[in-house]
Amino acid sequence: RTVLCNDPEMTLTPVNIPVDTSKLRIEKTAIRRVPGEAFLGLHNLEYLWMPYNSLASLSGITFKGLRRLQELRLDGNHLISFPWETLADMPQLRLLDLHNNELTSIPPDAARYVKNITYLDLSSNKLMTLPQALIATWANLQAVPYFPNDNSKIILGLQDNPWVCDCSLYEMVHFLNFQSPNIAFIEPRLKCFTPRSLAGVFFSQVELRKCQSPVVHTSVAKVKTILGSTVLLRCGTTGVPIPELSWRRADGAQLNGTVHQEISSDGMSWSILGLPVVSYLDSGEYICKAKNFLGATEAFISLIITDSESTDDPNSNAKGAWSGKGNGMEAAAYNDKLVARYVITTSTVPTLGAGVGTGGDLLLPDVAQDSNPRNLLVSPPTGKQEPERIVRSVRVIGDTDQSITLAWKAPLAKNTTVFSVLYAVFGERDMRRINVEPGKTKVTIYGLLPKTKYIVCVCVKRLIPRKEQCIIFSTDEVASAGGTQKLINVVVISVACVIAVPLTLVVCCGALKRRCKKCFVRKPKEIQESYVTFESLSPGAKAKGVEGEYLTRHTPDESNRLLSARSSVDSEAIPKIEGQPNEYFC
């Protein structure tokens, strides 16, 4: 039996529907709600069509008992939600049409109830995204199709919705672009609605990032500075979408500073809390919180205020390196613009902007590791900068596994200028200082650890070193270089001996043979004198008082002497010309 109700003035669902009805059509009426008992007893109902009514909501018990229902059409109504859990009461349902309603979202639990649905039309609603659980269900679905001759495909209608193309849509875009062969779309060319930059762009043309929970990055867990200085606490975060950063104190006290937000070139978001002219009241725990729709994380930074330069104490704990888990970002610590840490004692206080890494003059913060040269956590009170760069060409000129000799140039320095040498193990917080006597530009540092990377800076005492005045060296490389140099020396000497010794023996034997012949055979003087000719060539003019040619002949004795091992430096027999040096040719 089929029952059709299509009176436009009907406001209530019909009653006393025959129990043997298999198809019920209630179309184009003014019905706004369906009572829970409206379809009670219709155990043979297989098709329930209620399109283009005025339905605004459905009860959770509306479809209870309809275990033979195969089609449910609710398109063209005003539904803002659908009771997905009621699908459990309709195990044979294969078609669900919710086209042209006002659905704004689908709960993740819906994935549990749509596994048997092979035709689902959600088009022309107000959906902005779909839950990942539902996408995963469709991607792995192997249900029997509603249409037997449709090559086992599941039909989905998702078009004409205001899709928000952000990370929450990543799974859906990937699902459409690399869809399963058993899925078919009523309209496969879906478009983005927002953001404005992607409005109207097809899903196949967008590249979205997968959503990620926020992760907070801080370079240090503890910051120690002197009273009256300006402190910059820096906190970075990664996540998709970009998390919001906020600061608060653990004790609930009000923040005595300003917050500056920025985004680095690598897409990382940073928040800088500037505390000008810190006092003892500013000491305590500071909490940086990163939050997006996936969750929130927090990081703690302890601020300690002291009244002296205790961080310059050579006996202080030098093992304050940041101990967080390293990844690609934190491991890139101390690059060319951030090389050391230094604290000075002056009363000048910089502005907040001065501490945010300009990269020119080095503001050496209490920091161990950071991926960005601008991530300065502490800006000490800036003393007077050098009017001109006094210290130049810092270099290591002599070294062992446990010591180095450091030299530098200071052409503009006076005899009374005192230099400070700051050094530390690369990556550690505290630096040790050595004051050099006035007028000296060389110092030897002892007590270094073998096979260890160090950083050292040289500057005028009480002034801030620049990045050009700092170098990084490794005692491991020093040891390797020393061993390599010794090996090179041995090889060179060995090769020289192999080549030079036989050649010297040949020359000496020749000279000895000629001397023996001289003793027993007398040759004409002309032949003896013509054995070898030495020419003295000079590119300059003839010296005053020297006459004649620059060709001089000598006896064989002199020739033999010049052919000996020292012939290259023995030139007493050659007249020297004033001006440019002579060259001798055999």
From TrEMBL:
Ranges that cross the membrane: 487-512
SMART domains: IG, IGc2, LRR_TYP, LRRCT
Phylogenetic placement of the source organism: Eukaryota, Metazoa, Chordata, Craniata, Vertebrata
PROSITE patterns, per database record: FN3, IG_LIKE, LRR
GO cellular component, one term: dendrite
Bilayer disposition of the protein: Single-pass type I membrane protein; Single-pass membrane protein
Subcellular location per the Swiss-Prot or TrEMBL entry: Cell projection, Dendrite; Endomembrane system; Endoplasmic reticulum membrane
Major location category of this protein: other
One Pfam family, short name: LRR_8
The keyword Endoplasmic reticulum is annotated on this UniProt entry: yes
Protein name: LRIT1 protein
Keywords: Cell projection, Disulfide bond, Endoplasmic reticulum, Glycoprotein, Immunoglobulin domain, Leucine-rich repeat, Membrane, Repeat, Sensory transduction, Signal, Transmembrane, Transmembrane helix, Vision
Domain Ig-like: 214-306
Occurrences of domain Fibronectin type-III (ranges): 390-478
